[in-house]
Amino acid sequence: MKDKTKGIIMLIVTVIVVAAIGLWIGLSAMTDDVPGAKDINLGLDLRGGVSVTYQTKEENPSSDDMSDLQTKLDKRATALSTEAHVYLEGNRRINVDIPGRDNADEVFKTLGDAGSVYFTYACDKDGNSYYATDESGKYVLTKTIEEITADGRLILDGTDVGSAEALSGTDNSTGAVQYIVSLTFKEAGTKKFADATTECYGFRDTDSLRNQIMIVYDNEISSVANVKAVLDDGKAQIEGQRSFEDAKNLATIIRIGALPLEIEPLRSNVVGATLGSRALKTSLIAGLIGLCLVCLYMIVVYKLPGLTASLSLVVYLGIVMSMLLLFDVTLTLPGIAGIILSVGMAVDANVIIFTRISEELATGKTVRSAVKLGFHKAASAILDGNITTLIAAIVLFAFGSGVIKGFATTLGIGIVVSMFTAFIVTSLIMKAFYYAGLDNPKMYNVAKKPKTLRIVQNWKKYVCISGAMIGLCIVMLIVNKVNTGDILNYGLDFVGGTSVQVTFPDNVPSNAEIEDFVKNTIGEKATVSEISGSNALSLKTLSLSEDTLDTLKKGLMSTYAVSESDIETETISGTVSGEMKRDAILAVVIATVCMLLYIWIRFKNIAFASSSVLALVHDVLVVLGLYAVIRLTVDTSFIACMLTIVGYSINATIVIFDRLRENLGLMRKKDDLADVVNRSISETFTRSIHTSVTTLITVVMLIILGVESVRIFAIPMAVGIVCGGYSSVCIAGTLWYFFRKKFGGAKNEA
User: I want to staple 638 with a disulfide (CB 3.0 to 4.6 A). Which of 239, 306, 634, 720 is the partner?
Assistant: First the structure.
């Protein structure tokens, strides 16, 4: 009776928690009064905006110079949007993301404007002040820097400054701590500043305004200082700073004006807000439908444990959303794909557990014992499978950039949270059901004895099937190379250039018409392709300058009556595209090696590692063949797709190998090794099917409802999931058998 009361209380708490999380997620998305979903940072591809990546012309800039450059661009970007984000990438690149903007010209002009620090007199020659004080006590200019220059009252600009450094010290007369900025001028600046301080110092006792020098940055006054001496040695100090941080900021501002770094744009991307919101809406709808279908499937297949998994999934989503807010993750389209994909993969842990519980019930154990043993026996497979997938996510994060990091972040968070919900949340809910009196084994899907499949004996069939798929891949790569010069349909990320995606309000012009239009407008040849499921066309050309791109956009707007928000542009330099290719190959190789080492160490047998990796190489080649056959665009999503398939394939294989390792420990001398392999695959076969189906559900929803950029990612993912399931069942175990038979001393033949 005590346990039943405990179970009822646990169920009530569970229902309240799940209902609260569901209500929070729903309300936070619909109203501004509830913090949550709407507060998650959205990337430019979801809300629209402009993104630019710059690179310094100097190959090895100092960290101080890069920090100053970041501050400079941040000030300009913030003037366009308070939500602008400026961040460093590597040792000589800087990225600027400005949400909510669709006017690229304005952004390029603002960011590209050199700007500078100016040292000026505080008044004109007649003593009229150049500054005033606003209500907050802040100094503001009464004339522009151009007008001050025209008056002949500009002393020097930032290019005359050699260095600026914040210092702290003690005032000799009062003993108080003071914060100063120490300046060093270049040769030309030394002469200019000496002349200016000589003039100002002459008014030290008669006119305080004429005794002052202003420092102006971007038409804002950074400092107004009194001249206490003639400074002709190329050095000066600005006193009166309220804190060391104020002195440091002023020094940074002064250095910015003298910054020796020249930068050039490597990549730019303009995403229309309309297109971004459509991508967000369709992806969320796909995710919601996918989640509902997964829950329904789990309940039908696993009954009460399936309901448990569905409740656990709601908790899972609540935790994932909380972590996105806590870690201030910027959510992008690939990031949403990572979350939706991880929802399907999160079910896998529950599937493994429920399969084990079903098997224990089939042996006659009580529900209580079956549940306890099910969680215990499933633990190693869940941990090994998720760790290998997490390795893929870590590699993506380490070697990817921008949206790829976003995908890796959400996938990694999803994997970690899925393990927590499987071992803790699902376990608690299962115990609550049991203690509440739901202890009839029929409610827990008692497993039937599986039919033993003859996998090893049919190895020749699998060789033919896999050989045909890989052979087709190789043939198509050669055909593509001969016909187009490239083995794959590389996107801008891999070859560089400019892409313009235009959504037309009504009738979509023909490809030939647009090709002629581009040729006549800017004199460049463009490759035009249709975007299925929309009124949009994609134009790809060699890299265009800002002026040429602006001419093309204005031509499209005037000729076809499209608005600027309906035009997305992206420009990537050849330097970046070359690095993309290298990083893609490097990421796959490193991920593969890391997973091989992990499996080798974990299973203490190179045969397990070798056959696992060969199976995933098989999957990668098959999916690569898909890219070659249907000419899917190979871009940044290709890297995410391939590494996700690698992780998924390894995960599916490890579950089988975990069972094989267990059965090998129970193997008797008279047992046939091939039969042990077949039995291990057969015992995990239903798990392989259910996991593939639940993961496929979410991916298929993306294919059906997603926008083109999501669909390009989802189609090869679907093929990879099917192929991963096939290779883990038919290829991996068979390879292990032949490795073991040849190198491990197996005596029995298949």
Answer: 634
CA nearest 288: which of 26, 521, 94, 591? 26
User: H helices of 330-366, where?
Assistant: 333-362
Q: What is the DSSP string of 500-513?
A: EEEE-SSPPPPHHH
- Mean pLDDT, 10 residues at a time, the chain of 750 residues: 70 77 65 63 71 77 79 70 71 76 62 66 93 88 90 87 82 77 87 93 90 82 87 82 79 62 69 59 75 86 87 85 80 70 75 85 85 86 80 76 69 86 86 81 77 86 90 89 81 72 78 81 77 70 75 83 76 60 70 77 79 85 88 75 75 84 80 86 85 84 76 83 88 88 54
Tell me the C-alpha distance between 542 and 703, whole Å.
30
CATH number at residue 635: 1.20.1640.10
* Phi, psi dihedrals of residue 90, rounded to the nearest 5°: 70, -155
Final residue in a domain of this structure, among 538, 572, 606: 572
Q: Which domain holds residue 614?
A: 456-477+576-743
CA distance 419 to 417: 5
pTM for the whole structure: 0.67
Q: Which residue intervals of 100-259 are DSSP H helices? A: 104-112, 145-150, 187-201, 244-257
Q: Could you please report the per-residue DSSP string of 481-532?
A: HHHHSSSSEE-HHHH-EEEEEEE-SSPPPPHHHHHHHHHHHHS---EEEEET
Determine, yes or no, domain membership for 199.
yes
Same domain, 428 and 314: yes
CB 93 within 8 A of CB 87: no
Which among 64, 83, 113 is the end of a domain?
Answer: 113
Contact call for residues 743 and 608 (beta carbons, < 8 A): no
- Token representation of residue 731: 């290829």
